[in-house]
Write a structure and sequence with these properties.
With 166 residues, the protein is α+β, with helices and mostly antiparallel strands. The protein is 25% helix and 30% strand. It has one domain: 7,8-Dihydro-6-hydroxymethylpterin-pyrophosphokinase HPPK (Alpha-Beta Plaits, 2-Layer Sandwich), CATH 3.30.70.
Length: 166
């Protein structure tokens, strides 16, 4: 059974533009998943964090064989990619070499305590321009389960600075 998965990518250490581009390439190699498209890259200020460099963000869409690769297993594959890029999860909200968040996995609603902890849809995705803007770019008519169409959600976060990179 194929499901559509949306993955948010972000980085703010080292060369975050190169890292996010390389991470998008790494998404192509996930077995039992087919990479479809990624958004443009976006520069954003850290939300709720101080004294950190800006983030580079994007969102990717993949088609995943959920019978072989259910959401928790898919998330573990994302964590393996993060680890390959030097991600350490020792301090919450620390600057990061790479952050991959599973935003949506079909229309699944999950709240698994973990490990790994997984809540779907991602619990804060509708509050963040750095997720909504790239998501709207690749899925302009998407309905976020439990929240509705993306356009009004994106309009609600217009106060958050986000810059699309060329």
């Amino acid at each position: 059974m194929q499901v559509t998965a949306y993955v948010a990518l972000g980085a703010n250490l080292g060369d975050p533009v190169a890292t996010v581009r390389a991470a998008i390439a790494a998404l192509h190699d996930i077995a039992d998943a087919r990479f479809c498209v990624a958004s443009s890259l976006y520069r954003t200020a850290p939300v709720g964090l101080h004294h950190q460099p800006d983030f580079i963000n994007a969102v990717a869409l993949l088609e995943v064989d959920a019978a072989v690769l259910p959401a928790p297993t898919f998330l573990e594959r994302l964590f393996a990619i993060e680890a390959a890029f030097g991600r350490q999860r020792s301090v919450k909200n620390a600057p990061r070499t790479l952050d991959l968040d599973l935003l949506l996995f079909g229309d699944e609603h999950l709240n698994l305590p973990g490990p790994p902890h997984l809540t779907l849809p991602h619990p804060r995705m509708t509050e963040r321009a750095f997720v909504l803007a790239p998501l709207a770019e690749i899925a302009p008519d998407i309905v976020i389960p439990g929240h509705g169409l993306i356009a009004p959600l994106l309009a609600a976060v217009t106060g958050q600075h986000i810059e699309r990179l060329s």
